[in-house]
Amino acid sequence: MTLADDSPRTLAGTTGLADATAQDVADVRPPRAPRRGPSLSRNRWGYGYVAPFFVVFGAFSLFPFLFTAWISLHDARLSDIDGGTFVGLDNYAALLGNDFFWNALRNTITIGILATVPQLCLALGLAHLLHYKLRGRTFFRTLMLMPYATSIAAATLVFATLFGRDYGIINTALEAVGLDRVDWEAGTWSSQIAIAVIVTWRWTGYNALIYLAAMQSIPGELYEAAEMDGASRWRQFLHVTIPSLRPTILFTVVVSTIGAIQLFGEPLLFAGNGSTTGGSRNQYQTLGLLMYQQGWSNFNVGQAATTAWAMFLIILLVIGLAAVAGRIRSRRRGDLR
Amino acid sequence: MTAVLDRPSDSSPEVGRRSPLRRRKPRSRAGKAGPITYTLVVLTALVSVFPLYWATVAGSHTNAEIAAKPPPFLPNATLFENVARASEQAPMGLAILNSVLVSSAITVGTVLFCTLAGFAFAKLRFKGNGVLLSLVVGTMMVPTQLSVIPLFMMIADLQWVDQLQAVILPTLVSAFGVFFMRQYLSTALPDELLEAGRVDGASTHRIFFSIVLPVARPAMAVLGMLTFLTAWNEFFWPIIALTAANPTVQVAIANLGSGYVPQRAVIMAGTLLGTLPVLAVFAVLGKQIVGGIMSGAVKG
């Protein structure tokens, strides 16, 4: 028990605790108790205890999720609770011929890459820094988690001010160093970079803490061995830290990518007026925003549901690719051993 | 496990207090931070805080003042006037009250339901236990955005649009929470303790309330904080289900910018007002939230 208690492994890792306790206990049975409560093995209350989760999830997530597929086969308005007119795969054909869809898909991918790659690289570097013995460790970690505690709406409105064309501090700073002012919202790349900056700001600290937690569970012997082989700090980071973090990195890549595919609040509020077009030329309209526009501005929920399912298929594709990547990794490692 | 307790000291709640949530300090192999590390860490901390600080500055100056060279770097009392004007443009008081109600209800429900399910998955043996648990984990893959269309049609049919239950009920459980509580309880809750309760003739409910809940308290606190934070910041579904007439904080501040002549200083002041409660919570419980994220994040 002391062993499990002292180990730096976290929640999911410390399965030894209960077993260790069992071994501590002498196996002497007392005289039979007069009245026993229900056995914990074969306990029908198990179903009762997990029921609230499944009832709420089924009613408010699973059923609507499946119903979205049904609606995508219909020409339906928001008021058509019964489903509208059945049109088969027409909505999907229309989606593939819809320039707005391809534009939104392209924007989602570029903003996603601009937001996810720097975010995770920065988080990795930051975790490495935080892993050193620092004075005021908790203070720094808390400050770095502040952006995560700031809501999407608040963060986007504040950053829209920072990126403002006429009064934004970022343009003031650019001018001070002799560069031109940028109309961040109007340009395609500039607006997408600005939105990626918001996402990166909100999530870097959070991901850094996840990496840090994983770094702390890397056995010290690995570093000692590397040090004996004369590996520098940097080489230790490359050849010990990164390989040990591989599962965690894969996990954060999948989670961030799924988040990026669903990006919605930032592009909705970036212009400040809650417009669903994603800029005057749709230059930063994402799939999530397009779905919202189709459903709640154009009231065409059949098309919105089709876009939703397209998003889901893309997410499935990402998860599938990650699973394949993970398998290839472990197989290759298996070969080496 | 059928081992029976002999030494009563082992069954004391102290067992549960040795929480797996508590982490050991970083191991000694991590070197001391040099000046470069400190510089980079301080810089990152500044970048993390600057936008929120700038909101107080921009919230207390007119456009002309903010465009001056050099720009002002301190907030002033105008901020309070602008907060008052934000409260005129959007019902900020009502929004904060609504957000407190919604987030509290979601937190209580999520923590209770997730602890119930987590306990069942960790300690009760019933047919299909494993299959159901993998179902729970699988549900984390269903993105909430893809359910909103029928969900909106449902609440429209129930005449729940603009009513708080529309944003509370769908968010009342969390797959992550179930998994989190299950992982915690399967290590922190000794089977002997449950067996002892059973020998004493306690019902399953009695065992849950008298034995499981006290042991689960640290994990429930962490899950509660994270749930409250997420619920307070939830944006996508509330902006669909609620209107500016009966908003949560996020809906209210999103609508601050949609006037004909959006006033940047007022938007910043209102945004700050809506963010302040969660920042206050964060200032007090930041350490616990950091610990919670780090303990829940690592997969075995």
UniProtKB/TrEMBL annotation, chain A:
Q: Where in the cell is it found?
A: Cell membrane
Q: Cross-referenced InterPro entries, in alphabetical order?
A: ABC_transporter_permease (IPR051393), MetI-like (IPR000515), MetI-like_sf (IPR035906)
Q: Which membrane topology term applies here?
A: Multi-pass membrane protein
Question: Which keywords accompany this UniProt record?
Answer: Cell membrane, Membrane, Transmembrane, Transmembrane helix, Transport
Record domain ABC transmembrane type-1: where: 105-322
- Family annotation (Gene3D superfamilies): MetI-like
Q: Which residues cross the membrane?
A: 45-71, 109-130, 142-163, 193-214, 245-265, 308-328
Q: Which residues form a coiled coil?
A: none
Q: Which family does it belong to?
A: Belongs to the binding-protein-dependent transport system permease family.
State the protein's name: Sugar ABC transporter permease
- Source species, please? Klenkia terrae
Q: What is the lineage of its organism?
A: Bacteria, Bacillati, Actinomycetota, Actinomycetes, Geodermatophilales
From TrEMBL, chain B:
Q: Which SUPFAM superfamilies match?
A: MetI-like (SSF161098)
Tell me which CDD domains the record gives: TM_PBP2
Which keywords fit this entry according to its UniProt record? Cell membrane, Membrane, Transmembrane, Transmembrane helix, Transport
Q: Transmembrane region positions?
A: 33-54, 95-119, 131-155, 167-185, 206-229, 235-253, 265-285
Which Pfam families does the annotation name? BPD_transp_1
UniProt lists the family membership as follows:
Belongs to the binding-protein-dependent transport system permease family.
Can you say what this protein is called? Carbohydrate ABC transporter permease
Organism equals Klenkia terrae
